[in-house]
Write a structure and sequence with these properties.
It contains 3 helices and no strands. With about 100 residues, it is an all-alpha fold. Helix 1 packs antiparallel against helix 2 (about 40-75). The mean pLDDT is about 90.
């Protein structure tokens, strides 16, 4: 697995990656196998249950990892650059619409 932006975030990244990959495999395989058999309502219910499962199983480690990366971005002064890029993209989208 790849390393994170900051070495102190790497163990959290690995834990999150592992959790997400396990969850996603369990989400994707049944979703594909049953996509033609289920109604839209059943697919929506399945997606809702899987989202709740993700939050229960991976939400805490995701929150810790995200917090660690945000701190690393701020410590490196990259948070302001990211915010400016977000504003630029938003402005471009408004012009295109």
């Amino acid at each position: 697995m790849a390393h994170s932006l900051s070495p102190e975030c790497t163990p959290l990244k690995h834990a999150y990656d592992s959790c997400f990959n396990s969850w996603f495999e369990g989400y994707l395989e049944p979703a594909i196998a049953n996509s033609q058999k289920l109604s839209e309502g059943q697919r929506n219910e399945y997606a809702k249950r899987k989202a709740e499962e993700f939050e229960q199983n991976c939400g805490a480690v995701w929150g810790k990892y995200k917090e660690c990366v945000q701190k690393a971005l701020k410590d490196r002064g990259l948070d302001e650059l990211l915010e400016q890029a977000r504003q630029d993209i938003t402005n471009e989208q408004c012009v295109d619409d």
